Records
---
Amino acid sequence: MDQAYVGRSFSFADAYEVGRESIRQFAQAIGDENPLYVDQVAAQTAGHLDVVAPPTFVIAVIARAQDAVMFDPALGLDFSRVVHGDQRFVHHRPVVAGDVLRSTVHIDSIRVMAGNDVIGVRTEVVSGSSEPVCTAFGTLVSRGVS
Amino acid sequence: MAEEPIRTINYVDVSVGDILPPLDLSIPRSQLVRYAGASGDFNPIHWNDRAATAVGLPSVIVHGMLTMALAGRIVTDWIGDPGAVAELGVRFTRPIPVRDDDIGAALAITAVVGALDEQARTARVDITARYAGQTVLGKARAIVRLG
């Protein structure tokens, strides 16, 4: 893998518009019947502008931005050998329906551990021009050819 | 329609060692298809046995991010408002194969309050997810804001 990528960041041009139906479908897919995912009145009563997204919904928000960087052949990541090592979301505020979110992908680290390439990715998600919404930390492991 | 108030948990009512209500779930293959659609993760190892066995897996496996979402559920079921989750993180330590029957994979999720931060009024919840008696996540933790 190309070490020159460490420290680089990539702003994804397309915004992700969070829709109520996208949140509903995601909540159904994880089998979660929390009313704040589907009921606007309940969400607003709890102090939110609109229905709230499940904590891991952000993975769908950042997927295209992250894939655009990870699938860049110049990075040299062999995707047929990649597994997800870890994932962590730091929520600066909840994602709600109506949010228009932009993602910037940062390559924090590229290491070789036990013959595997290990890449640390941080994606900063902001609303509007700069309001921080979520920081997503992920580790991808490309298993070495043994 | 009368709205049920969303339960909130107050900092003073939480102690280190408190055990959250456990969650026993079965993940049938249909849920993997549903999750693929909702998340946009169409990696065929989650819906096609041929693709899964080609990379050495016994069968299709659960999306790691679906397992993480289910681990998050034990926390949001407890606190009521998912917006109170300030942080959620996991390591994926073991794949979960999903049988082609009505049950699929049975997942047992437990959680305990591991630490409290009085100044921030937050709790750290330590989560354990087991499949066939073995843990499938490492360092699975949430930080939640309490009332």
Note: The first helix of chain A runs from residue 20 to 29.
---
Amino acid sequence: MPKLLIRNGRVMDPASGMDRAADVLIKSGLIVRIEPNIQATGAITFDAGGLVVAPGFIDLHTHLREPGYEHAETIETGSRAAAAGGFTSVCAMPNTRPVNDDAAVTRYILEQAERFAITNVFPVGAITENSEGERLASIGSMKAAGAVAISDDGQPVMNSRVMRRAMEFARAFDVAVIDHCEDLNLSAGGDMHEGEQSVRLGLRGIPSVAEEIMVARDLLLVELTGARLHVAHVSSARSLAMIADARRRGLPVTCEVTPHHIALCDADVVNYDSNFKMKPPLGSAADREALLEGIAAGVVDAIATDHAPHPGSEKMQEFEKCPFGVIGLETALGVALKVLVHTGRISLMRLIELFTAGPARVLGINRGRLEPGAVADLTIFDPELVWTYDVNRSCSKSKNSPFDGWTFRGGPVATVVKGRIVWQRSQERG
Amino acid sequence: MRAGLLGIEPLDRTEIEAVLERAKAFQPAQNQPFVKLDTLRGKMIVNLFFEASTRTRTSFEIAARRLGADAISITAAGSSLAKGESLVDTLNTLAAMRPDAIVMRHSASGAPHFLARHLPIPIINAGDGTHEHPTQALLDARTILDHRPTLEGLRVAIIGDIVHSRVARSNIFLLSKFNAEIVLCGPASLAPPELARIAPGVSITYDMREAIRGADVIMMLRVQLERQQEAAFPPDEYFQFYGLRLEHLELAKPDAIVMHPGPINRGREISSEVADSQRSVILNQVENGVAVRMAVLERILG
């Protein structure tokens, strides 16, 4: 593989605090040097003048749908959407068919990724067999096969005794337990956040306490077991307050929020558009404000997309019949810049941290930083590029985005995975 | 309204007034046989009923025919609708039939909005899930105006299963636009506090006597057991606390009227004595159903 020299960029690395104009020299998939005016004969050069060169973005929460639901997304198409969004790594959620609940499935995902993915794929294993919430999955062998965390995302473990055992096991193997916090009895039958808008539209509500009760339970179990807990897609103000309190008390708890929960709220669910239907549902405006403040205050570790592809045929139904979930890989950076940086709530450096060092810390993986010797995963973006999202041109197989037609300032320009440019914005996309 | 009628909420007051005024002209005259009009001659209206309905469907059919339109009804039983055809396939079939308007009832909130987004044909919502039933609210307003000079400032009690009621929502939106004082009443599980915030002038009480005191209009709602996920109240206690009986009427204004969208469950939400009393205008509501739907069809297609 020839050397790659990324020239004249603004190199920003939250892990080390570096923010300076420099070149980045990459050889054999690793970063060799980061300094101004590097001379490298024979290297392919990429002119990053006016662009930000950051560690490769890591998405903690991606549904690649393979194996089993390839009509919605595949490892290949999902990784292309990821690269187009500036992500160099995605964590593949285990709710595939079969569920990723043993090492054979984990290995299959990694082999498929090796052949077809243009980004890194980190599998997340299930907590219980078939995510049924009863018997523990083979957590140790999945970890050995390459799983980076465990989760029964979407079908959360209701039985607190099982969750306790899972946490004890996870602690022994030092893997994070990612929980989609939802009391399925309280949320049953609901289609959107329970509040004024659900009552107005005549849609059944999912109360915020459905999330909060499970966050509270999990935090108590963390105190009991000492396991590392990562709360997925926090959507409620009270959930975040409980997490902040647990962190103050020194508990090993991290959390993520999605771009859609900080850009939208339940009042945006109008005209029964199923591209605004997801779990957890879009919360109240006050919930959204609390999430934005939590990010600024440092309570939130990562922005994660919860990219959940569903084909048009499944989203073209009565609202109550449509499945939950929206895609989000390609719009994550644009949305985050819009609601967090352009509004002055956080710095650009902090934003990059939420996509890089933050998620790497959650998983405990050696990624998300720029330094000699590190794997050359880089996200190159233009903080001033004005572009409009057209979901019909998405790399994803599915088109269920609430951000279709949105115009953003700032977006990915090139994505480098293990030293290779795997995606570049074409000029006409501009 | 030319694009259709999906709900009362987006309408403005003058449009509602125009429909109510026009409906008056279509009310049955004393002992006069109805003369069929040809306002909508050559127009085809499809009544698409995914949910069982007798009075709304027949009332739309009669309204269409009195205006000279061709009306065909497709009902769930015995059609492809009952055979699991998806809404999007139904939509394509309908588009090929090229009707001039579609009257639609569906068990899912927002189903007509879905159709309206994808079809360039006016859609008239004849009841969608637990959302709206706009022509019911219009006929209720027409009925009130047959007994009161104005809707302005009236005190209207709406009692029963509010959260599951599309009739309640449409009436709340309509009456609120005319500055009525709207008091909602039902068991707490069926009358969540957020309802008071969906329109101005709405309050909630869990005490039926409180709701009825000083009311000009008492609207009773049908208990919709089929829409409840689990028993939201002990069924045997419902009539005791939220059923309308003669003794309640003494609390209302002396000339207060009692309304019910039907079909009524005698002995569950309303006693037979009240349903059959002089105060009850339930049959006027049915009569006004045709008149109001004629006015709506004429406004959309005329």
Note: The longest helix of chain B spans residues 282-301.
